[in-house]
Amino acid sequence: MASTLIDLTHPVTTGMPVYPGDPEVVLRPALTSADEGVNVLGLHLGSQTGTHVDAPYHVDLTWPTLDGLPLELFTGPAVVADLRGLAPRAPVTPQLLAPALALAGPGTVLLLATGWPRHWGTDRYLAHPYLTAEAADAIVAAGIRTVGVDALSVDPTPDPGPADPAVAALLEQLADEHDPAPEEPTLAAHRVLLGPEGGAVIAENLTDLAPLLAAQAAGRAVEVSLFPLRLVAADGAPVRAVARLG
After folding, report:
1. Who contacts 28 (Cβ-Cβ below 8 Å, separation ≥6)?
2. What is the mean pLDDT of residues 44-64?
3. d(CA 46, CA 23)
């Protein structure tokens, strides 16, 4: 059977979804063949735009930057964990990962298939399932150093709240009067995977992993490449994520 290439990358377009607070994406012509003789596109985007990888530096200034990581971390045979059907903001536990971890090991790319790409471009995309710290520990213990997810983050994404500033201000006032200040996101799974013990990289915002699950169920080999832009001293970079089904 001939191999098949599957693109796992969201297109980079003006106004595309970004993590709350990240730079908005704008693409516009910088030069045109009509005026300057060539077409050149001007890009405004963040390092975490679209389908991207996180380096350890993303969460700690003392941890390695993207350009200091070996290329081997960005490619390899893949095992896909089928996590479809989980509720919004559901925790992914070690028990849920156990079948995939039994097939994975050092040098394996672990892909987490939540099915959340179906919500891309909607508010529901922010309410994805997430890895618990214990699940991240289990991944590291299995010797896995590359993890990808078809959602916005491996950690829970904060709810940005209502878009209306007046409503947001009222809710904040009520919260201040009745509840303690909310805790800041801890990025617990990021810290376990990217930290000194884990030494991993994380790919986020992969597209639909269903074809990879089907190939895996049929006994076909699955390989993934997640090579980032070569940005100096960066926390991460967009990638062209591609799977090869054997």
Report:
1. 14, 41, 42
2. 98
3. 5
Note the pTM of the prediction, 2 decimals: 0.90
* 186-217 pLDDT, tens digit each: 899 999 999 999 999 999 999 999 999 999 99
Inter-CA distances, 236 with 40, 54, 125, 187, 223, Å: 24, 4, 21, 16, 21
The length of the chain in residues reads 246
Taking the chain, what is the end-to-end CA distance rounded to the nearest angstrom?
A: 7
Alpha-carbon distance of 212 to 78, in angstroms, equals 9
* Calpha distance 145→72 (Å, rounded): 10
Beta bridge partners of 91: 130
50: left (phi over 0), alpha (psi -120 to 50) or beta: left
DSSP per-residue string spanning the chain: ---EEEE-B----TT----TTSPPPEEEEEE-TTTTSS-EEEEE--TT-SSEEE-GGGT-TTSPPGGGS-GGGGEEEEEEEE-TTPPTT-EE-HHHHHHHHTT--TTPEEEEE--GGGGTTSGGGGG--EE-HHHHHHHHHTT--EEEESSS-SSPPPP---SSHHHHHHHHHHHHHHSPPPPPP--HHHHHHHSTTT--EEEE-B---HHHHHHHHTT--EEEE-PBP--TT-SEEEB--EEEE-
Amino acid at 190: H
Backbone angles phi, psi at 138, to 5 degrees: -65, -35
Tell me the C-alpha distance between 56 and 194, whole Å.
5
Give the CATH architecture of domain 47-159+186-245.
3-Layer(bba) Sandwich (3.50)
Neighbouring CB atoms inside 10 A of 233's CB total 10
